[in-house]
Design goal:
Number of helices: 9
Radius of gyration: 18 Å
Structural class: alpha+beta
Number of domains: 1
Number of strands: 5
Strand content: 5-15%
Largest sheet: 3 strands, antiparallel
CATH architecture: 2-Layer Sandwich
Shape: globular
Order of helices and strands: HHHHEEHHEHHEEH
Helix content: 25-40%
Length: 212
Amino acid sequence: MALELRGPPVRSPAERLANATIADQFAQTYPLDFDLKARSSPWFDPGRARNDAFFRALWFADRQAAEASLVQVAAPRLGNVIYSVTAKRNVACQLATVLDALSNAPEDLSYIFASAAGGFNWRLIAGTDRLSAHSFGIAVDVNAEIGQYWKWTGAPEGRVGAYHNRIPPHVVQAFERYGFIWGGKWHHFDGMHFEYRPELILHARLVEGGRH
């Protein structure tokens, strides 16, 4: 009898997002250049796919453990913004370094952080059964009016239109320099969202041959 070899089942982008493997997390390379053309491709969302078991093992398995790790990171010169994030794996330290650098920028960037309230929040991603990155204390949001979010456009998944960015490139690059990715580079854009994913930054640098 001949042995029939079959590869893994083909899954749609939506299925990969809903039930990501660890390999799926690295399937798309996060673009380090400030070029938003890549996000025009449907389902180009590097970093948006998260394997729940991986995140719970790397960060926290439950809310109580996550809350016990939290510290506050403040930036008085950025509109007195205060974020509650985890101290685990140097997240709070890295965020403090980013905010300090932006506080010392020649221009006033406080408008980007006005009304910012997105730090730790143990919750599911809207419309899903997947935990948000905010649940682990590794994500922060800036001013929602400046950042914008794809669902507010009414666009269907996989067919999101242009993203009219209002966040200066050097702000995004400051976050990236210390391990945070930006949701504004996703097809399903979340321009207010920054998430600590140093493994994706390192992966991008390796793929791009150390240009950054």
